[in-house]
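User: My advisor, Dr. K., asked me to get a structural model of this assembly before our group meeting. I'm new to this, so sorry if the format is off. These are the inputs:
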Amino acid sequence: MHPAYSVILFTTTSGAGLGLLAWLGAYAGLGLLAPNWALAVLALGAAFLLVTIGLVFSTFHLGRPARAWRAFGQWRSSWLSREGIVAVATYVPAAFLAYGWGWLESPGAVWRLSGLAAAALALLTVYCTAMIYASLKTIRHWHHPLVAPVYLALALATGGLLLQALLFVHGSALRPLALLLLAVLIVSLMLKRAYWTAVDNARRSYTVEAATGLGKLGRVRPLDPPHTQPNFVMREMGYKVARKHALRLRRAVLLVTFLIPIALTLVTVLLPGRGVGTFAALLAFVSSMAGVALERWLFFAEAEHVSMLYYGAQAA
Amino acid sequence: MTSLPASTGKKLGLVIDLDTCVGCQACATSCKEWNAGGYSAPLTDEDPHGADPTGTWLNRVHSFEAGEGGDSRTVHFPRSCLHCEEPACVTVCPTGASYKRAEDGIVLVDPDLCIGCKLCSWACPYGAREYDYSDGVMKKCTLCVDRIYNEHIEPEDRIPACVRACPTGARHFGDLGDPASAVSRLVAERGGFDLLPEIGYKPVNKYLPPRQRRAATMEKSPIALASANAPTTDRLFAFIDRVLSR
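Assistant: The format is fine. Below is the predicted structure of the whole assembly, which you can bring to the meeting.
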C-alpha cells in the first residue's frame, strides 16, 4: 500500500496526544492529580495541540478537504466516520478535565468522572483508527487481531513518554509513571514482534487462479497488461518495499521506538538530577515518535492488497 | 446511507464470456467515451500524450495465460465493478457518498458527497474503483445508469455502453436476481462463476469460463487425415506433414 505521509503524521501525532490524554484522564480519575494550573496548561495544552494538528493533517490526504465534515455522518457502518465522531467528542470531557485541574481549588467527582471519560474516549478514538485498517479483508497485513492492540499500546507509549518529559520540564513527578511506562514499552515491543511473526507466517489465502476463476485450466500468469503505465490502483495498492530493506527498517523500529526509550527511561530512574532527567525524557519521547512514524510507514509499505493479483501477484 | 439495503428489487449486472472475448478493448474505450460525458464526468486523463500517461477508466481488459504447453490458453479478461450484494466499499464510506441502490442493486458514488478519502478503493478486492486525481473524487462503473433508463435514446441503446460495443457478444446485461432472465439462464447453462467468492462480497456480475477444446482438432490436422483415395497432392502433403512431424 502507498504510504500517505499525511496519514502517517496524523496517526503518529494524534496517537501521542490521545495517549497523553488517556494517562492524564486516568490519573485524574483515580484522584492522583493535585490541582496545578501550570502543569494543566502544559500537559493538556500539549495533548490538545497534538490531537488537533493530527486531525488537521488527516484532511490533507483528502481529494476534497472542504467536505471533511461530511465524514461524521455514517457512524452506523464506517469506522472512519466513528473515528471522526469519537475524536471530536473527546474534546468535551477533556475541556472539563482542564477546567477542574487548572482552575478549581478542590475539584470534585464531576472532574474525576470527566477524567475517566476523557481517557476512555481517547483510547476509543485510537481503537477506531486501528479498526479502519483491521476491518479491511482485502489486506492480509491489516486484517489481523494484533493491529488494534499495537495501535493502542503505541499511543500509550508515546503519550506516556511525553507526559514524563513534561513532568521533568515542569519539575514535578507522578508515581509510579516510570514503572508503568517501562511496562507499556515492553508490552508494545512484544506485541509488535508477535505481529510481525504472525503476518510473516500467515497463509496467503487468495491466488491469481481464484481472482480470475481460471484455475481449472492450470497455472495462471499475466500476458498483456490493460495499460502501459501504472494506473491509480497500481500506484495506491501496488506500492512495495524491498524485503531486505523491510527487515533492516524493522530492526530500526525496534531500536528507535522501544530499546532507546526503555534505556533512557531507566536513566531517568537511576540517575539523579533534573537536568539529566529532562534531557533523557525528552530524547526518549522524540526517539519514540520517530520510531512510530517509521513503524507506520512500514505498516503501509509492507501491506499487500488482493487487487494486485490482477497485476502480476501470484498470491495475497 | 452507507448501510446496505436488506434486499434489492433487482440485481442488475453483467455476464462476461471469457470464451468469446477477443481482448479488442472496444468495451473499455466505449465505456470511457460514454462515461467521460455521463454520470461520472469527468474521467480525467493526466499527461495523455506525454511519457507517463495515466487516467481514470472504469473498465480494464487484462490478458492472462492459463495452463501449460500445447494446452495453454490466452484468456482476455475484462475487469470492472461487480456490483456486489455485500460490498465493503459501500459500508466503509464515511460520508454516504458510496451507496447501493435498493431498487436495482447498482453500486454508485455520489460525486457531490465524496471527500476523496480513497478508503472504498482499499476495501475493493477487485481493483474496480479508480480515484480521479484531478477531480478529487472516486470514480467507478455506474452500469451506465444514465443509459439503461434513458428514454431519450433508442430502446436498443438502453444497455451499458460496454455491452453495446462488444463485437463478439461476450458481454451480457440483465437482472441476475431473476432466475428466468436470459442472463441467469446463460449463467446456469455455461457454469458462470464469481471472482474471489471466499472474500464474501457476493459479486452480482458473473464470468463464463472458456469452453473445453474439441479433442480431435488438437491431435490431427485435416491434411494428416487425408485418406488413401484422396487426390495425389493431398497425399503428398500428408506424407510431408508426417515427415515433418517426426
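One thing worth pointing out at the meeting: Chain B touches chain A through 71 residues (CB under 8 Å).

User: Perfect, thanks a lot.
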